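Hi P.,

Sorry for the delay on this. The queue was packed all week, but I finally got your sequence through. Input first:
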Amino acid sequence: MHPMVKPALRRGWRDLNTVQFGMTPTHALTLGPVDTATGSFLELLNGTRGLDLLREEGRRMDLPDGHVDRLVRRLSRAGLLDDSRGGGPAADALRGRQEVLERLRPDLAALTVTTPGPGDALRLLAARRETRVQVRGAGRVGAAVASLLAGAGVGEVDVRDVGRVEPWDVAPGGLPAEA
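Then the structure:
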């Protein structure tokens, strides 16, 4: 596991000893008491290190033995951690396509908040690539919906329409006036 604090949960200090993760009442959680060293250690939970390396970093920061494991368990039980290497083979394939993953990073961040298990968000995002959606009608609404689905990583968006573009079909984010 390569633990990382879920990226959609902004972190802020409520006071000298209490960290709050997330800002909305639905997802906000507090952690305390947190000493200075532990507060600094939280910065290392960014998905670039496995547990062995995190333990080593904890020792360098003079954290007590077992502190890193207890902290990771506590954050994980609270639903604050994701696994940057989790999600299975489809997620591994998506990680190999960095340009696609970068474009979908906001979707991934949002999914981490709504999925409890580490790696679940990337697994679901990767599953979108296997999804086929048919949009019937390419007018003002259909064109925008098709565009949003494609932008969100849906694997195949099939737009069906037999009509022609009319002036009322033009919309921001949809068909341009030239159509």
